[in-house]
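thought: user wants a sequence for this fold. calling inverse folding tool.
action: design(structure=
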């Protein structure tokens, strides 16, 4: 999601977010029918998955793999859809108004559409993708589900506070049987955005800590882990490993050497950072160091505000 420092020009985020300090559960009316209908639709299209899947351990250094949702299958009702094999969803990045798919085989960004809204139009500050491949999006004031092929969005609820980052964490980490949507404030607060009642209920789970702020994004993939871009110490953004239950920093991997990494995602063993200036970077998972992928040319004038992959992007 877009960071608070923003950048320049008309396409840049504002200088600061309304933080809202979600120190206790917040509730805002959200249109129960809309929220409940959307939740039902997501559940109905779900697929049974194996929560114990992990990637090849040789791909990551010691301590990087974690069974994020171990034991979730025994606590959760069985999904009713077909069994999914292989990676779920695709790698997405977005500006405040347009959704793109990053096709790494073709080395190109494919524009899926300009975000459109059935009501309550907003600028999209971040996206997140659940285990079924359903894309959620937040703006400064609202949360939506959006079609990945058209970027058409259905309004779910009004947010009682703003977040500059968002991710799902896998089932069983925060909520049994289902992925949990997490909003990240500029101050690094890790907040569960619960839409199950048809209203937005916020529950603060924790904070990055140590004075670190959110640069703008995080991802959580089964068998890979939970990672975020941070700012506040050093001249450039820092990559960190995060506890998905609390948002607390588990390990600082190192400065990236890049600034404004408002989008962070993982795909096929590679960490990708999407910068407000339009560049795309590969991030070293041991040191955090960013290397620009110069072969990936973003459309002219693009300013990345966020990115997202499914919690099941690693398959299983």
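)
observation: tool returned 316 residues.
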């Amino acid at each position: 999601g877009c960071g608070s420092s923003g950048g320049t020009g008309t396409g840049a985020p504002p200088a600061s977010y309304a933080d809202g300090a979600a120190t206790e559960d917040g509730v805002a009316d959200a249109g129960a029918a809309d929220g409940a209908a959307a939740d039902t639709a997501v559940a109905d299209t779900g697929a049974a998955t194996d929560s114990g899947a992990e990637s090849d351990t040789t791909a990551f250094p010691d301590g990087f793999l974690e069974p994020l949702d171990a034991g979730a299958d025994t606590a959760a009702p069985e999904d009713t859809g077909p069994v999914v094999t292989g990676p779920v969803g695709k790698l997405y990045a977005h500006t405040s108004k347009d959704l793109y798919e990053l096709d790494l085989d073709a080395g190109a960004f494919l524009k899926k559409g300009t975000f459109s809204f059935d009501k309550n139009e907003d600028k999209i500050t971040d996206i997140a993708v659940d285990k079924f491949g359903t894309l959620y999006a937040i703006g400064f004031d609202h949360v939506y589900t959006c079609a990945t092929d058209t970027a058409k969005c259905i309004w779910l609820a009004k947010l009682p506070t703003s977040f500059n980052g968002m991710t799902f964490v896998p089932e069983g980490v925060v909520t049994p049987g289902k992925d949990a949507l997490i909003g990240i404030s500029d101050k690094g607060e890790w907040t569960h955005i619960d839409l199950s009642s048809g209203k937005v209920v916020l529950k603060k789970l924790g904070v990055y800590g140590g004075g670190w702020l959110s640069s703008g994004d995080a991802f959580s993939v089964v068998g890979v882990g939970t990672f975020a871009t941070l700012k506040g110490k050093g001249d450039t953004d820092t990559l960190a490993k995060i506890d998905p239950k609390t948002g607390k920093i588990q390990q600082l991997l190192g400065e990236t050497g890049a600034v404004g990494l408002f989008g962070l995602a993982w795909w096929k063993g590679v960490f990708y950072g999407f910068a407000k200036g339009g560049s795309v970077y590969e991030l070293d998972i041991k040191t955090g160091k960013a290397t620009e992928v110069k072969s990936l040319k973003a459309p002219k004038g693009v300013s990345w505000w966020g990115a997202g992959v499914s919690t099941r992007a690693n398959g299983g």
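thought: summarizing for user.
answer: Here is the designed sequence. The chain is about 5% helix and 40% strand.
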